[in-house]
Every structure is written in structure tokens, then in C-alpha cells.
TrEMBL record:
Its cofactor is Mn(2+). The gene is ARG2. This is Arginase. Binds 2 manganese ions per subunit. The lineage of its organism: Eukaryota, Metazoa, Chordata, Cephalochordata, Leptocardii. PROSITE patterns: ARGINASE_2. Belongs to the arginase family. One of its GO terms (molecular function) is manganese ion binding. Keywords: Arginine metabolism, Hydrolase, Manganese, Metal-binding, Urea cycle. It is an enzyme of class 3 (hydrolase).
Length: 291
């Protein structure tokens, strides 16, 4: 995404962009599956992410985190919530990523991040068996989350969404109501007075694999590129976006064309979240050239 010119494009929009660079994550040799895969590595990595995002938000920055595995959102949301405890969350994804370590069929932590963060699921997490997450405090009420784009849920996830009556718009509702209605109702549910900072976690696999083949767990029948862009533009217009994750871009999978399309989609969504308009942006001070 950097190589595709993301930072220059954001600067062209008038943003004062500070690239805080990559975080370096340690690999742990002795990291056997313990309910989940790679608990030590992910626990340590997400702790670093949390600290970095907390600091960036405290420095008054709209904070963008690029990934990579969606488990990073354990850290981004935790860090954001430390600085902005009143945040609400838009989770744009094919998956709900709210498996608990005991419901995950795969063991992949990227399918579980929300279960670690949600107050109401605190007692379902085997914390004592996962000491690498001992730094983490659940920080989110389940009613503070709205899901958009869902189309691949595991049984435990379906149960959790139903039990807590979570705001969620699957791709079925997107087809039924249209994307404008869906995103407006999502915001109305989690941010009715428009006074809460928004965290948007945008998984590139929410968008159809036609445009996003370079991702680990593609699911057919996703949001169109245009629906993804509409979400981004609509959220920008609220003026409340405080932190943004753009995740699950993996240029190592798929064809060369998949890689190009996926990175392009990610960069377009990111720039739209930060003010690029498809109708065109008026440059400040623009004057018509005269003959
Ligand atoms: N962020 C993602 N791509 N998540 C995919 C999760 C897939 C599946 N539900 C699992 O828990 O393993
Ligand atoms: Mn995800």
C-alpha cells in the first residue's frame, strides 16, 4: 500500500501525514497451539500495537493501521479505547471475527479478536491459559459494535450475535436495503447522537474477491467495490472517524492481478475514508486558467 503511493495520495488531500513505520514483531519458537494458534506471538504483537495506537491517538492523530492479520485489531481497538473510552466500532467484514478461543474452528486468532475485547464475553476467555494476553482489558460493550458485509459465520458467532442482539447487516441486508440505508442504520445504532469517536475496522475481504483476491480467507459474493467506497465516503462525512484499520491485505497470495487489484482497492478505500471524493475534490485556491 505504501508502494502504491498511499502516503503521497493522502498528502495530496491536504493531510499532514506522519508515517510511524512498521512495528517489528517477535517470533516465538516455543509457541504451541493453546486453544488458539501462536498465542505468544500474537499476544506480544498486539500489545505493541495497542501501545502504538494509544500513543498516536493521544497525539491527536487520526490513526490508520495497515495489515496484515485482523488480529492486530485486538491492539488497535484496545489502544484507541485507552485514549478514547467512548468510541464506537464499525466492523466491515465478510466474517464477524468474534469466535472465542473455545468456539474457533481454525484456531486462527484473526477469527477471534472481538471476543477478547468485549466486556460481555470476558468470562468465556480462558485468560489463565493465555498469559500473553494478560496486559489486555476488555474495553468494548457489545452494543457498541455494528457489523456490515457478513456472509461467513461460525456457529458460536451466530449464537453470540443473536444472544446479544448485535447490530449486524449481512450481505443479505445490503442487497435488501441498499448500502446507504445499511451504513446509516449502523451509525444510528452505535452513535445515535453523533457524539462518539468512530473506530472503523475495514477487512478487505468484505469486498468481493473479484476485486480483492490477495487475501487469506476470501468469501464469494461480497460488497462491490462501489459499496466499499460508499461506506468509506459516508464515514468520512460524519467527521467522527478517529481510527481506521485496513486489514487482511496479503500480497503473497493470489495472482499478480489479484495483488494489483487488492492493493488498489485498499488504497482507494483508505483515501476515501480520509476525504477523497469520487465526484472530485476542489483544490483550495484553485483558479481557472485564463488565455
Ligand atoms: N479476519 C479474518 N479473515 N477472519 C476469518 C475468520 C474465519 C473463521 N471464522 C475462523 O474463525 O477461523
Ligand atoms: Mn476480519
Amino acid at each position: 500500500m505504501r508502494e502504491a503511493g498511499l502516503i503521497e495520495k493522502l498528502r495530496d488531500l491536504g493531510h499532514n501525514v506522519e508515517d510511524r513505520g512498521d512495528l517489528n514483531f517477535d517470533v516465538f519458537k516455543d509457541d504451541p497451539r493453546n486453544y488458539v494458534l501462536n498465542p505468544k506471538a500474537v499476544g506480544a504483537a498486539t500489545k505493541k500495537v495497542s501501545k502504538a495506537v494509544e500513543q498516536a491517538v493521544r497525539d491527536n492523530k487520526l490513526t490508520v493501521t495497515l495489515g496484515g492479520d485482523h488480529s492486530i485489531s485486538i491492539g488497535t481497538i484496545h489502544g484507541h479505547a485507552r485514549a478514547e473510552p467512548n468510541l464506537c466500532l464499525l466492523w466491515i467484514d465478510a466474517h464477524a471475527d468474534i469466535n472465542t478461543p473455545l468456539t474457533t474452528p481454525s484456531g486462527n486468532i484473526h477469527g477471534t479478536p472481538l471476543s477478547f475485547l468485549v466486556n460481555q464475553l470476558k468470562d468465556t476467555i480462558p485468560w489463565a491459559a493465555l498469559p500473553s494476553f494478560d496486559w489486555l482489558q476488555p474495553c468494548l460493550n457489545i452494543t457498541d459494535i455494528a457489523f456490515v458485509g457478513l456472509r461467513d459465520l461460525d456457529p458460536g458467532e451466530r449464537y453470540i450475535l443473536q444472544k446479544f442482539n448485535i447490530t449486524s447487516f449481512s450481505i443479505h441486508e445490503v442487497d435488501r436495503f441498499g448500502i446507504h440505508e445499511v451504513i446509516a442504520r449502523s451509525l444510528e445504532a452505535v452513535n445515535p447522537k453523533g457524539d462518539r469517536p468512530i473506530h472503523m475496522s475495514f477487512d478487505i475481504d468484505s469486498v468481493d474477491p473479484a476485486a480483492t483476491g490477495a487475501t487469506g480467507t476470501p468469501v464469494p459474493g461480497g460488497l462491490t467495490f462501489r459499496e466499499g467506497m460508499f461506506i468509506a465516503e459516508h464515514v468520512y462525512r460524519t467527521g467522527l472517524l478517529s481510527a481506521l484499520d485496513l486489514v487482511e491485505v496479503n500480497p503473497e497470495v493470489g495472482s499478480r492481478q489479484d495483488k494489483v487489484n487488492t492493493v488498489m482497492t485498499a488504497v482507494e478505500v483508505l483515501t476515501a475514508c480520509l476525504g477523497k471524493k469520487r465526484e472530485g475534490n476542489l483544490l483550495p485556491g484553485y483558479q481557472l486558467p485564463m488565455p
